[in-house]
Amino acid sequence: VVSAPAAAGAATPTPTALAAVSTLDTLVPAPVSARAEPGQDFRLTPGTAIVVPRGAGGAGEVHEVREVADLLAADLRPATGFPLSVATDSGRRGNTITLRLTRDARGIGAEGYRLDVARSGVTLEATGAAGLRNATQTLRQLLPPAIEAESRQDVAWTVPGAHIVDQPRYAYRGAMLDVARYYFPPDVVHRFIDQLGSYKVNRLHLHLTDDQGWRLQVDSWPRLATHGGSTQTGGGPGGYYTKAEYAAIVEHARERGITVVPEVDMPGHTTAALSSYGELTCDGVAPPLYTGYDVGFSSLCLGTPTTARFVDDVLREVAALTPGEYIHIGGDEAAATTPEADYTAFMAMATATAAKYGKKVIGWNSALASGSPFGAGAVAQYWYPWPDDATARDATARGAKLIMSPAHRAYLDMKYTATEPLYGQAWAGYVEARNAYEWNPDTTVNGVPASAVLGVEATLFTQITPDEKSVQFMLYPRLPELAEVAWTPLSGQSWDRLRTRLPAQAQRWDAWGVNYYRSPQIPWV
Ligand code: TNX
């Protein structure tokens, strides 16, 4: 796997020019407000301590603060080699990084933070653990890129003096990974989660099931994983997550402020399930496993007691593994489901079943058939690459909310350019770096008010990306760009500024070993 060569013509700063740029000017997503404080640079030293409020050994919120501090220390130790002990506040002054809870939500809300960097110490302040976690990610990006290294680096660990007040534009800042078309082992997902955390993404949508594979162990229907998970696109060996592995993914994400949204795609995209249990089909015959690229040809048999029992069992087991409020039930490309009335009734049944297990549902916006009970008060993920959709407009008028993933902006399986040789689809057009960034989720669907937009999700379907390197090539630089679309207020977004901040981010990707597309639109070093 290789990156496409950078095209000629882009202005390229010299490495020295990059080294002279303050990390304050390289933050992604850009903070709401950041003021440089000259002369107030902080130096991380072997004696630096991380300080948490008193009571942080106990239960509840203060305990979570301790967890955030521990994670910060763990993230900063490898490259610095410093002990970075975490200590309860004893009034100690000196070289400290202090995490503090506040009741003053002005300008920071539930997920934002205030970050003060001064010679004497760094203070991170938020109304809860979520905001403090976001503050630690900003602090990490304020350190030199070498902080991302896994082994000790000989670097002056200077943080530029600054006062930052920051909070997100949207509550839902997501990324989707399709682990069904290709199976990605847990360690790949764990690394992806770490990267999402760096960009303040707070939802990981896992597309767990599709025609080509079923990737989660289900005790009541064991063949879903053992048979349905036994291959993938192209016919490779596939795989699935045991419940323990899946729970570890959910927990790894939670520690980093990320809620996993599991997707069980129904009633279409179900060959792996149908092949595992012939009784889920209308003729009772299990089809062979599917390893091709097509969509829209499979369906559960609707209206049968067996299908209702299947939905109940699967959603019950998935709900038990899901601390978050949402399960995604798919609903896309159900072209093989007939008649339409059955589809609408099915989505209503699946919605009610999820509710029985304490979960709300998300569906692809193609599930927003007018009059469907799924419409009112539901959450739909909008993927159409066009601005007019009456069902989305009507549903939001009745109270539905949208997560914006318009394919021509946020589908990261789209090629960057026509000539990009290796990966990608083009059915929604080409999505160069700039296209992924310059759009407004609040005005993407005509007639849908901004108040109906919950947030943004970068979406990676993986029929064309068989391994971690090719996945990364599609994600970078577009994933961090979409994270900024989701976080930074529109007034703070600027392509000209973002494109000059991304080369410094790429030094962090290099340290992570991330393969990225060297877009000619960005002045890489
Ligand atoms: C559409 S949009 C799909 C996926 C494909 C993708 C390929 C949607 C909800 N489903 O099944 O993988 O296009 O770009």
From TrEMBL:
<feature type="active site" description="Proton donor">
    <location>
        <position position="333"/>
    </location>
</feature>
<dbReference type="InterPro" id="IPR015882">
    <property type="entry name" value="HEX_bac_N"/>
</dbReference>
<feature type="domain" description="Glycoside hydrolase family 20 catalytic">
    <location>
        <begin position="170"/>
        <end position="489"/>
    </location>
</feature>
<dbReference type="Pfam" id="PF00728">
    <property type="entry name" value="Glyco_hydro_20"/>
</dbReference>
<dbReference type="GO" id="GO:0016020">
    <property type="term" value="C:membrane"/>
</dbReference>
<keyword id="KW-0378">Hydrolase</keyword>
<keyword id="KW-0326">Glycosidase</keyword>
<protein>
    <recommendedName>
        <fullName>beta-N-acetylhexosaminidase</fullName>
        <ecNumber>3.2.1.52</ecNumber>
    </recommendedName>
</protein>
<dbReference type="GO" id="GO:0030203">
    <property type="term" value="P:glycosaminoglycan metabolic process"/>
</dbReference>
<dbReference type="InterPro" id="IPR029018">
    <property type="entry name" value="Hex-like_dom2"/>
</dbReference>
<comment type="similarity">
    <text>Belongs to the glycosyl hydrolase 20 family.</text>
</comment>
<keyword id="KW-0732">Signal</keyword>
<dbReference type="Pfam" id="PF02838">
    <property type="entry name" value="Glyco_hydro_20b"/>
</dbReference>
<dbReference type="GO" id="GO:0004563">
    <property type="term" value="F:beta-N-acetylhexosaminidase activity"/>
</dbReference>
<feature type="domain" description="Beta-hexosaminidase bacterial type N-terminal">
    <location>
        <begin position="27"/>
        <end position="167"/>
    </location>
</feature>
<dbReference type="InterPro" id="IPR015883">
    <property type="entry name" value="Glyco_hydro_20_cat"/>
</dbReference>
<dbReference type="InterPro" id="IPR025705">
    <property type="entry name" value="Beta_hexosaminidase_sua/sub"/>
</dbReference>
<dbReference type="GO" id="GO:0005975">
    <property type="term" value="P:carbohydrate metabolic process"/>
</dbReference>
<dbReference type="InterPro" id="IPR017853">
    <property type="entry name" value="GH"/>
</dbReference>
